[in-house]
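Standup notes, protein team

Yesterday: finished cleaning the Marinobacterium zhoushanense set.
Today: methylmalonate-semialdehyde dehydrogenase (CoA acylating) structure.
Blockers: none.

Input for methylmalonate-semialdehyde dehydrogenase (CoA acylating):
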Amino acid sequence: MTQQVPLLINGELIQSRSTTLIQVTNPATQEVIAQLPCATSEEVERAVAAAKAAFESWKDTPVGDRARLMLRYQALLKEHHDELAETLSQETGKTFEDAKGDIWRGIEVVEHACNIASLSMGETVENVARKIDCYSITQPLGVCVGITPFNFPAMIPLWMFPMAIACGNTFVLKPSEQDPLTPMRLAELFKQAGAPDGLLQIVHGGKEVVDQLLTHKDTPAISFVGSVAVGEHIYRTGTEHLKRVQAFAGAKNHMVVMPDASKNQVINAIAGASVGAAGQRCMAISVAVFVGESREWIPEVRDALAKVRPGAWNDPKAGFGPLINPQAKERVLHFIQEGKASGAECILDGSECVVEGYPDGNWVGPTMFRNVTTDMSIYREEIFGPVLVALEVDSIEEAIELINENPYGNGTSIFTSSGAAARKYQHEIKVGQVGINVPVPVPLPMFSFTGWRKSFYGDQHAYGKQAVRFYTETKTVTARWFEEDIDHGVNTSIHLR
């Protein structure tokens, strides 16, 4: 019998009373591996109420105790690393190595949360006026909400709830309905680490559940990662209800190739960054901009991509796995057909990809276009598949102008041996995360994930110091004490007035 994914409410795994069930399938086989209930309105209400009740004691828990919880949690995540990666692989289709990377990048954020004592320190100035001191302190917000996507079912939840809880909040997580088993296991390990009941709740479902969390009077902060359309809805709805929102949305990431770059490094970087995880990364390189004579390398890039083959999660020779579901595959195939119809030259076509032994998998092979113009849909839209488009320009100035005119600003990179070119690029480009000879510049957790423009709606970004600012409020105290009120002890002298 297919398992039904439970909810987590007030420390207990419970079976939902919902009759609306979503099938969770293995993307390589279409085998149903679980059934996911869409939580009822009453169950969502119970989850928020449990988190609110737990907040009353958790907010006063000493910061050292919060840090020690995260220390125990990161140790358990490391202990169960491969087990988590196997579960993640089977429900997302990722290769085992890719899944392990997903887990590890999440663990790094939990390690960062262990530093919460120093991260949440306030500021003090003595004698802002005569014998008056001023200092600031950070305090938690309450019940925070996380809405996470399918493509990183470990890393992105771990971006959110460990930092929020370390700051003194409680948390309600609504993971993707397409791969909920990994987040549920993360929650079980969190409870095993000693998390008090009610700190972390998990509810499942679609738009109705999300909207209930967005509009609930007891959820002051919302974190989201996903598509542009949903991100805009999350941001508008949340802010209309006077909530603090961080919404990470779509991307169209460009990699600029200068003619003085190392050709071998460029080819290897593009191959991995464009089709890794089947292109289902918000930081995937989906556009390569060849400057000047570097355009002569395009055939070699195509040849390198052609050698990367998809396969099942446990195939050690597979470069990437299937797309998450048949609808995602059809969407990518539609873009490939649009690219051909618009006049782009398809120099590598993965439309008819077949993986032996897995005839029902959502396979699309590496695909590459050249002679692409910026008005084509394959350039304008985020394809979210293993499709690379190549543009050719004559100068770095043209490359910068082209990228700055694109509405997205998540990540970009430049490959060059010129420090001057790299300096010019990082200074003038209007993108939040820049790599120099690094194809996928996702920052480590001591920094923050800083998408710009249409890739992000909000003010404070994920993890790093900005996460602490997002999940806390600052209180400023101005204090004056009167020296004449100092009690020097018992005085038995008789004072005449």
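Follow-up from PR in the comments: The mean pLDDT is 94.
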